Amino acid sequence: MILEMKVPSPGESITEVEIAAWLVEDGDYVEKDQPIAEVDSDKATLELPAEESGIITLKAEEGDAVAVGAIVCLIDLDGKKPEGITSKEVKEETKVVEKSVTSRTIEKTYASGSASPAAKKILDEKGITAPEITGTGRDGRITKEDAVKAVPSMGTPAGGSRNSERKKMSMLRRKVAQRLVTVKNETAMLTTFNEVDMQPIFELRKQYKEGFKAKHGVGLGFMSFFTLAVVRALKLFPDVNSMLDGDYKIMNDFQDISIAVSGPKGLMVPVIRNAENLTFRGVESEVKRLALRARDGQITVDEMTGGTFTITNGGVFGSMLSTPIINPPQSGILGMHNIVERPVVINGEVVIRPIMYVALSYDHRVIDGRESVGFLVAVKEALENPIEILMDNNIKKALEL
Predict the structure, then answer these.
(1) Residues of the chain with CATH 2.40.50.100
(2) Does domain 112-149 have CATH number 4.10.320.10?
(3) Which of 26, 33, 368, 392 is catalytic?
(4) Which residues is 55 bridged to in the sheet?
(5) Helix (H, G, I), strand (E, B) or coil at 275
(6) 54-113 pLDDT, tens digit each
(7) Closest by alpha carbon to 334, among 188, 234, 187?
(8) Of 26, 33, 364, 392, catalytic
């Protein structure tokens, strides 16, 4: 019996996916629920598990765009699991041999690559001979595009590597690129800046982080302070928590905070739901859970859908200052940066303090200057007075110690 495996829908509004990588080969025996492929949608990379056990026949190539509901592979349910060495192991050995032979063949072909008539004409006009360039066509043939890109030699090469690679971006990365350009073109985006004295948070973490981790199993990081400070500021300035929908402005009475995290396939933005109901422990636990799922490629589309405001931390990569790009359809995003000891004036005296620059990018169609500046000042106030503003003057209760 042959089972036709179809592409499942990874989420609402997604009509196609791209085969990012096959984890098995044509003719392999697969077990039920075994991951057989990684597929990219425009929101996430997901694993595709085998629906049943049997011999698999692939019906799409890596890089192919496949419609949701289309047949992606066949599984012969009557296929028997091979005994001893698996068909996959045999194929791995064969691939090594084939790769070696192919490598030598290509190397030989490239040395004597020929140019197409159109390419030869262009090379003649440039005064370049065919052996001077490497063709990208079949069997090393020099194409017209190769000839157009070829540059006459300006001297003897110094002997360093001069290779380049043309690689198609994943569907996820292409969608991110498209969204970023759309934001720049379709929003009235502005950025306002401020600085935060992180000394009070440093002192709190130094005193309580060990006890917090021992009690709750998660670290007391900066994200809980920033998330709770943002939640408070969003309540004070609700326009920052709103978004446009045509001629209407949608106002939210909840705070779903998107957090930008780096995953194996690029930037992921999972959402902390109803952050207004979370404590320091709750925020840190949720951040850790989502970050691990993003890192391991297990994050789902639902976990990245929605969000009313975004926090991104370029400081983990060493960024001093940036203008973060809004995550549509949201109207605002807060950028955190690295913490550097700087001289500042406090009570008329110059002292050294750990300072972080923060940036709020916002859509001026929705948010006016008063709200944007006021929001960022409110975040600064909470971070510089965490015991009073975020902990209600009761540290142990706030940290659940």
Answers:
(1) 2-76
(2) yes
(3) 368
(4) 29, 76
(5) helix
(6) 999 999 888 888 888 899 999 999 988 887 645 445 445 444 434 443 444 334 333 546
(7) 234
(8) 364
